[in-house]
Amino acid sequence: MGVIIEESGLRFGEYHENQVFQIETSEQYTKSLRQNGIKTCEFILRRGKKLYFFEAKQSCPRQVVGNIPADEKEKRTEAYNNFIEEIVLKMRHSLALYGNILLKQYSQDKVPEKLANPDLSNTLIYLVLVINPQEGEWEPEPELQDDLRLHLKDEMRIWKIQSLVVITPQQAREKNFII
């Protein structure tokens, strides 16, 4: 049986164990970084020449802001910005931690061979946010993806990231990311 990762009401997988590194539950992260304010995404997946950094959420900005009265624009803006900042930090820190694992600044224990000693020269890197709101169907707000890309533009250039996408569970299922 392969690896199944349950997160935010979704079942990611089923992946071969040498394809996936669960960075959020890894010893490299949980031993000393998590308690110091470092954030990570859920996991890193390698499929052929593609490397995906996955984050999953059960709330979307529309829900977060929706609980704040319309006349309280500052609070609504702050809630939206906090959502963006959380995702940006998770992606930024995950890229940095993974890079430092590759540089052996952190242990490579329990990092699959395909992810610990890869030739990344022809690898396409993607950042993926899957939002699974508890309220059923949801369509991504175009500005959410744009804002995340804007905030991560430097990392996207440095790491030569192909794209950052915000997708629904249905889209994730179509791409065989979730079961």
What does this structure look like?
The chain has 179 residues and is of the alpha/beta class. A 5-stranded mixed β-sheet has the order 3-4-5-6-7. A two-stranded antiparallel sheet has the order 1-2. A hairpin with a 2-residue loop joins strand 1 and strand 2. The two termini are 14 Å apart. The model has no long low-confidence stretch (mean pLDDT 93).
Largest sheet: 5 strands, mixed
Low confidence ranges = none
Topology, number of strands: 7
Decide which structural class fits the backbone.
alpha/beta
How far is it from the N-terminal to the C-terminal residue, by CA? 14 Å
- Give the topology string: H per helix, E per strand: EEEHEEHHHEHHEH
User: Quick check: average pLDDT?
Assistant: 93
Tally of DSSP helical segments:
7
Helix content range of the residues, please? Answer: 25-40%
Strand content: 15-25%
Please give the radius of gyration in angstroms: 16 Å
What strand line-up does the widest sheet have?
Answer: 3-4-5-6-7
Shape: globular
Secondary structure layout:
Blueprint (H helix, E strand, L loop, with lengths): L2 E5 L2 E6 L4 E2 L5 H4 L12 E5 L2 E8 L3 H6 L6 H30 L10 H4 L7 E8 L10 H10 L1 H6 L2 E7 L1 H6 L5
Parallel strand pairs: 5-6, 6-7
Antiparallel strand pairs: 1-2, 3-4, 4-5
